[in-house]
Amino acid sequence: MDKLQQHFIRIRKLLDITFFRLLFFFVLGSVLFSAMYNNVKPEKLELSLFSVAEKTIRSPGTVEDKKSTENKRKDALDQVQDVYTLKKEYTQNRVDLITSIFQSAIDVNNEMKEELKKLAEQATEDTPIKEEPSAEDKVTRLKAKLTSSASKDLSTQILTALVQANNDDLSIARDMTVTAINNVMTKRISADEVENAKKRVEEELKYTTLSESLRMASIELGRYAIIQNEFYDPTATEDLRNQAVESVEPVKILQGQVIVEEGELITQDIYRQLKLAGLLSTEKSFKPFIGLIVLVTIIISAIYYYFYQMKSLPEKRQTYLLLFGIIFILSIFIMKIISMLQIFNFAGIGYIFPAAMGGMLIKILIDEKLAIFMSIIMAICGSVLFNEGMAGTLNFSEGIYILFSAIAGILFLSKKNQRSKILQAGTFAALVNLLTILALMFLPNGQYSGVEYGYYFITALVSGIGSAVLTIGLLPFFEASFGILSTMRLIELSNPNHPLLRKILMDAPGTYHHSVMVANLAESACEAIGANGLLARVGSYYHDIGKTKRPNFFIENQMHLENPHDRLPPDKSANIIIAHVTDGSHTLRKYHMPKEIVDIAEQHHGTTLLKYFYHKALQDETAIKEDDYRYPGPKAQTKESAVVGIADSVEAAVRSLSKPTPELIESLVKKIVADRLQDGQLNECDLTLKEIETVSHTLCETLKGIFHSRIEYPEMTKKKVKQA
To answer: In terms of DSSP H, where are the helices of 15-87?
Structure first.
């Protein structure tokens, strides 16, 4: 395991170099592309024209059949009839024309009468009265009132009949003729229907009570008035044709549509459809591969960006990247192996995939956000890898199943961070798997047998429990190989039954109590500034493990015992006290404790000065070195180490007070923090002044709660009086 860890460390160091980091992402993309390549590769069939299909062939995607669409549009155009427009204004024009002819005849009669009347008034005995004007004169005058075309088209016989009739008869004839014309011309009259329309007018006027000559004149005027009123409208016809073309929906070969049944003859039309669907071996399409490359590029770019903007130390970021890559490749490998079983036509074989495994591992080892991000990626990959038997490239049901299963495991672990709860998380994921499968089965109103329901129930259970088992099995491997201190590992280390904690409790009970008090102080302070409070607590439990080697040389373990330092020179005492740091780190490494815990043990004193023994030595002799009375360090490198060191000093100082008051506690805490700042003990960690102030305030509040004033009960008072 140590050799494997060394290999991972070397790889992690290589990831610090941009070239190898890009190479790492290229490898991830290549693995992803290789895994999904066969699932997007278009199926090529060896088929020939007029051969018999050996199996039912469905379209892998939706594609437009342009030839059929064009034929359908031509049929639609052929069914469009020419548009003819009825010119209603023509009716009024012809009515007005006939009305004006009759009115002109009436006007001629009136004018002639007026002229005769005037002549009669002017006549004398010597001037005889002029005779009435002849019909020819009236016709001549009537023609003058008509348009040139009307006077030319109307016969003299008709005009004579008009001028010879009296005005009353002309009015009646006019009304009858206009009515007949209007009745006929309100209906459509095409070019070949004009003669029939004229006959209809003639029929209406044929049996009127008018005089023979006037009736014949009305009939002729009616026939003369009837003209074509329906004409071809090219604009409307073109608009109608465009509408017909636009109304034709494109003919498409739908995804999953049966193109040819098993045993059916492949006709030219079927062969053309197979070609359109890209199923013939003579056709080479690179679109699916381009699409897969784009998809993989998007996924890898998203992963790169996530780690690029991750706010953590470069060393930790590279460790997380390598860990994520291994878990990601492992998940894809398992998914690919299971997807290969689809050749045996096991329905829903993809549901057996341990979808929650990757998400739970990432959640435990790195963080929840990345775990959810990976779950989304795995859902996308699963929808491609488990597409066997699907009409399209993506199996959305499988993608939804993987996403829900993974998120279920992640969310359960977000509240239950103990390793013993992983199996429960797997059971919860199995329940979600079952509910998801039921939803996917019921939504399309599918019909399934009891055996199929049982089969799906087993796959859901195997997926959930399998995820938990694999997570439990792989977790120690990743923790040991990468030296990762997960939340669950910290919780395990905080168990009082841990051999080292039992050793502290048995060999140095005072130190054990001191460590617990420091743990309470450090955890609350770290949580106040956003640091890892659990790490600070567990680190506090082990920070003084080195005191178990010589427990009686430390004051918290000298209950009713003589202080051995009273018999030792200051330099020997200082060496013994300082040695507990190196002894502690040695012991922790011996027990293969996580590096973070060892660092806290080494750094909690930093390079501080043992003031008591240093000043004692100054009283005995003057030629001493201050460095001999300082801890070897290093200084605190992390917020957690710095807070544990402050909490350690504060707890020891406050415990030494005979009557700790809130004011005294606050003054002491500020003094200790100020001494650490002035001594440069916090120079190498990333604690800000604002955070240091928050730590001081939190420590004061916690200590005030611990050392609060207690009520002195009467029984206690009586005992004191008796003792006095």
So the answer is: 18-40, 66-78
Task: State the Cα–Cα distance between residues 157 and 576, nearest whole angstrom.
Answer: 153
Would you say the pTM of this structure is higher than 0.85? no
What pLDDT score was predicted for residue 244?
A: 86
User: Residue 76 and residue 482: Cα distance in Å, rounded?
Assistant: 71
pLDDT for position 205:
87
Q: Which residue type does 455 have?
A: Y
Q: Which of 365, 323, 368, 359 is nearest to 486 (CA)?
A: 365
H-helix segments, 186-313 = 194-205, 212-225, 234-247, 268-276, 287-308
CA distance 339 to 381: 11
DSSP H or E segment with residue 691 = helix 689-706
Q: Cβ contacts of residue 698 below 8 Å, gap of 6+? A: 524, 525, 528
Exposure string for 124-157, b = 16+ CB within 10 A, e = fewer? eeeeeeeeebeeeebbbbbbebbeeebbeebeee
Instruction: Identify the bridge partners of residue 57 per DSSP, sorted by sequence position.
Output: 260
Evaluate whether 512 touches 541 at the Cβ level (below 8 Å): no
Count Cα atoms within 13 angstroms, Cβ side, for 370: 25
Q: Which residues contact 88 (CB under 8 A, 6 or more apart)?
A: 186, 229
* Neighbour tally for 30: CB within 10 Å: 12
Q: What is the 3-state secondary structure (H, E, C) of 63-77?
A: EECHHHHHHHHHHHH
- Give the mean pLDDT per block of 10 residues along the chain (724 residues): 60 73 90 89 71 75 80 86 87 89 87 80 59 76 83 85 86 90 90 90 85 88 89 88 86 77 80 75 70 93 89 79 92 92 76 93 89 94 83 82 94 65 90 92 80 87 93 85 77 90 92 93 93 92 93 83 83 90 92 89 92 83 81 91 94 86 90 93 91 94 74 46 36
The distance from CA 95 to its chain's CA centroid, rounded to whole angstroms, is 72
Amino acid letter, residue 42? P
Q: Do the beta carbons of residue 58 and residue 257 sit within 8 Å?
A: yes
